[in-house]
Amino acid sequence: MHAIKVRVARKWREADRVLGFELVDPDGAALPPFTAGAHVDVHLPGGLVRQYSLCNDWRDSSRYVIGVLLQEGGGSRAMHALEEGGLVTIGAPRNHFQLDTGARRSLLVAGGIGITPLLSMAECLNILDREFALHYCVRSAAAAAFAGRLREAPFAGRAHLHADDGPASQRLDLPALFAGAGADTHLYVCGPAGFIAMVAEAARAHGIAPERVHVEHFANGGVLADGAAFEVRLAGSGRTVAVPAGQSVVDCLAGHGVEIAVSCRQGVCGSCLTTVLAGEPDHRDCYLTDAERALGDRFLPCCSRSKTPLLVLDL
């Protein structure tokens, strides 16, 4: 993966437990272009790699802007520890959350820090003069990252903030939202897994087809909490390796000298996607669609396991 060295040009407090970062080329050169919904891999001390959505105007190649919520675990803490003016390595932008700019109408629904990719989407849809609405759900008004930017945006009238600590009248009413959406509406939702599931289910219940429901997970925790041991066979060499409970296929194979390119280690980015030649994967990722999972011919070894005693991999 192409590595890019960037400088932290600015670091600021965006909301409770959320810092904003502006990343630029150290020499002032243009950064690689990106599209609305894209993210970059940030390489942090200790070998950590984390994905953060780009939330600035996609037409501005002079900088990347990201927002980072402080959570348990090393990734966000390492990001928050970065110094303004310091250097950090990132990957080129990638987009697994593509915006359909030709849709008749789009609904953007964010939970918490899930607002970041939707900011760029909203700006894109506004510039293209498309019909859309943005709904942003937070636990408290103080936790609403980029709320000031939304208030000042040219599309402010189409951006709605829903805070749990606010009046009941301003809380998001999903049945009402989707009742008038229309079957041809495209939905984009990002946030915690439970939030995504709730919104997506409400959309489907109101007739929005699954292929029009687009989701972006920013975390996939607890994927190795259970699951029995199994074996993987490497088709290229015929070698068989035992994968114990509680250890990922990626880490197990690395311990046996077999390296698989991996990035997020959470089943989110798709970097380690591997072909399965035999056996039934136990999918625990947030990357593959239900249709892709049903095929059973690929899985993400950073988090997924096996429902059968043996998986044969194209390695």
From TrEMBL:
Sorted UniProt keywords: 2Fe-2S, Flavoprotein, FMN, Iron, Iron-sulfur, Metal-binding, Oxidoreductase
Domain FAD-binding FR-type: 1-100
Swiss-Prot/TrEMBL cofactor(s): FMN
PROSITE patterns to which the protein is assigned, alphabetical: 2FE2S_FER_1, 2FE2S_FER_2, FAD_FR
The keyword Lyase is annotated on this UniProt entry: no
One matching Pfam family: DmmA-like_N
Domain of life: Bacteria
GO molecular function, one term: oxidoreductase activity
Domain 2Fe-2S ferredoxin-type per the UniProt entry, residue ranges: 230-315
Name the UniProt record assigns to this protein: 2Fe-2S iron-sulfur cluster binding domain-containing protein
